[in-house]
Design brief:
The protein is mostly helical. The chain contains 13 helices and no strands. It has a domain of about 100 residues: Serine Threonine Protein Phosphatase 5, Tetratricopeptide repeat (Alpha Horseshoe), CATH 1.25.40.10. It is about 80% helix and about 0% strand. The longest helix has 14 residues.
């Protein structure tokens, strides 16, 4: 088995030291292969060694400027640091370099939401859901974005699909309550606020929404 694959397997098992050793060996054996640098960067990222991780991604890009996974991984680091401008640049570059998977579209959409550009985020979140219809969180974020842009019926559809995938998604249940409240369907709104509170009894917004409905 390729050492990079072995290292990834070690990471999946939480064997960080073993993974580091194997990735290091892979780099020593083939110092011009960007894949090992990306993998080592991903390991460092998991261990919160952010600056070191960035240097490994940069080295991978120096070796191969079309290494799309390096831009995507760097984008995740910038996103976690709330540096959304740089995160956006990295995810967009990964897209240009050919990384057309659901995760990259999702992260680019989420970054644009954090940059308060929901209208621009919509097509990326939509594409993410199209590429991975089983991703409950992508459906949730897409549904929220649709609601923010005033597409209430379309939002309800996505949020209902989210809870079909994850019936314990309290925020999706709460936002369904809000959506039905907006449509002036008090019974449906109350149903979803109650369901959100069953999943998460301390969900403050769901509790507040329930009180508003019951007052009326």
């Amino acid at each position: 088995m390729d050492k990079n694959q072995v290292g990834i397997q070690y990471m999946q098992e939480g064997k960080w030291e073993e993974a580091a050793k194997v990735f290091n060996e892979a780099i020593e054996e083939n110092p011009n292969n960007p894949i090992a640098y990306i993998n080592f960067g991903n390991l460092l990222s998991v261990l919160n060694e952010t600056e070191k991780a960035h240097s490994f991604y940069q080295r991978a890009i120096e070796l191969d400027e079309s290494a799309a996974a390096a831009y995507y991984s760097a984008g995740n680091l910038y996103f976690n640091d709330e540096n959304f401008i740089k995160a956006k640049d990295m995810f967009e570059t990964a897209l240009k370099k050919g990384l057309h998977n659901s995760d990259n579209y999702f992260m680019l959409g989420l970054t644009l939401i954090n940059l308060e550009q929901p209208r621009l985020a919509l097509p990326y979140l939509q594409r993410s859901v199209e590429l991975n219809s089983e991703d409950a969180e992508a459906r949730f974020q897409y549904g929220l974005c649709l609601a923010q842009e005033g597409f209430i019926n379309e939002s309800i559809e996505q949020l209902e699909q989210c809870i079909a995938l994850d019936s314990t998604h309290a925020d999706a249940l709460y936002n369904l309550g809000v959506a039905y409240g907006f449509k002036e369907d008090g019974d449906k709104a109350l149903e979803f606020f109650n369901r959100a509170l069953e999943v998460q009894p301390d969900h403050i917004l769901a509790g507040y929404g329930k009180k508003l409905i019951e007052k009326n």
